[in-house]
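Illustration 12: Mannose-1-phosphate guanyltransferase alpha-like isoform X1.
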Amino acid sequence: MESSEEKVVAVIMVGGPTKGTRFRPLSFNTPKPLFPLAGQPMVQHPISACKRIPNLVQIFLIGFHEERDFALYVSSISNELKMPVRYLKEDKPHGSAGGLYYFRNIIMEDNPSHIFLLNCDVCCSFPLTDMLEAHKRYGGMGTVLVIKVSAESANQFGELVADPITKELLHYTEKPETFVSDLINCGVYIFTPHILTAIQEVSMHREGQGHIAANIRHLSSFETLQSPTSRALPLDFVRLDQDILSPFAGKKQLYTYETMDFWEQIKTPGMALKCSGLYLAQFRFTSSHLLAGGDGTKSASIVGDVFVHPSAKVHPTAKIGPNVSISANVRVGAGVRLISCIILDDVEVQENAVVINSIVGWKSSIGKWSRVQADGDYNAKLGITILGEAVIVEDEVVVINSIVLPNKTLNLSVQDEIIL
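Figure caption equivalent — predicted structure in token form:
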């Protein structure tokens, strides 16, 4: 096929409200995919990467959030990128591969030669163009982005074995109990349209085994996800890893492309703060115009990689960074020090307050000489401090390693607490 005729579509899986409970209290009023990292919604980082793919014709977001949650974002990003971005709402969870099949007619309407499939809660440099080139060389049905991790952490992910020379995927196992490999699945894929036939075959095979859908109608999506056997799964619930990658491994159908760059999974607010920093660091190479500058004379002193929304007002005596993201309409007073934090829309940080290793929720207020801080262990439950929406920290109050739910007023200092 001539490259002039080739068309590519990208599908980004954004999940839905049944998942993302570990992201509370930040997901109470904003769907997790729209939570800002480095000043941009989480989903925008993979979208921006997709925009750089040659011959891309459409981007689809698939999930089971309410359509109204995404309507405004989808229309604004489509205008900004001059590229159709559409949100497709599943009637129920269909699994990582089943969602692709459920919307197959819409996804295939431009007759694309390749389909990218990305998970929204993955943070990486998304080397999609290089991956596409490699995929064409391999000539298989699909290519999986992989990365080497420490042997101790590998079993938290899908582990895989690949041929060191041909890069063929030889073996795939999801979260194994014994060590298989230090190569893991990054949740970023490229497929030819043959993937749709493969998904259909999984459903038909299940039907052939006499699985009656009526028996499983009462299963909640959570139970379905927990189910260890395919016997309990609905015919149209197809998982990419267990139902496609494992059975097709070693059949010269699937290949791997290894990234040497950063990769993280964004499951918790702690990881969101870490990934915001990774994206800010990447902006230095891809979008340096988004990073703030300042030497403390006319504008605040900026240290390292910092994003400041144009509508934010930051006092010139403040010192900001590294790894700080300041959202719309934020007000930062004189003498404030911000380090490794995300300050969300409409927050006020008053004179001489300090915020370190924290996420400060929308419309919150931090009083004069107050401190909101944490140890900065991104994996620990209380490793960063989180203030939910509209939390008021009064003057001279210290909040350490704590999570504060929305609409609370703190007039006493707290440490290592979850304040309900």
